[in-house]
Write a structure and sequence with these properties.
This is ATP synthase protein I. Keywords: Membrane, Transmembrane, Transmembrane helix. It comes from Actinoplanes cyaneus. By secondary structure, this protein is mainly alpha-helical. Helix content is 65%, strand content 0%. It has one domain. Helix 2 runs antiparallel to helix 3. It starts with 47 loop residues before the first helix and ends with a helix.
Amino acid sequence: MSGSDAAPVAATPGAFGEIPGAPEKDFDPPLPDLPPLPKDPRWKVEHLGFLTAVSFALLLCAASVGFLVSGPTAAFAAAAGVMIVLVSHTLTTLVVAWADTVRPALVMPLGMLTYVVKYSLLGIILAVGVSSDWSGKKALGLGVVAGVVVWTGVQAWWVTRRTLRQ
């Protein structure tokens, strides 16, 4: 029997399930039906301008109260607390809006990742602040609390107002 008359040997799959020497198959599975994107995705971030303006007004008020109560260190700390909340919430809004525009299935994982990162950083900032002898740590905490309460309240008001318009 010559080498050409031998029965073909079954090929074993390669590392990634490929069979060496096998002809390539065209694998083109159908894409799932995705919901259409909104015509104007700007509505997802249209509240940021108003919320930023309100947050800067709060920042000025917090700095003024901090200065009047405990001096320049407390003014800086209270303003920094409000700024931490402003940056944190703006970042989350932008990440979630971007993910929803690109692919709605990304909203949950990217939103959760953003929350984990920002709350980890906030925890580190507050832990370092609490454990230090810095005189502005109370004002920083009060600025964060004021920023969260005001941002959440204004955003709830904005969403309610927008829902009632439609």
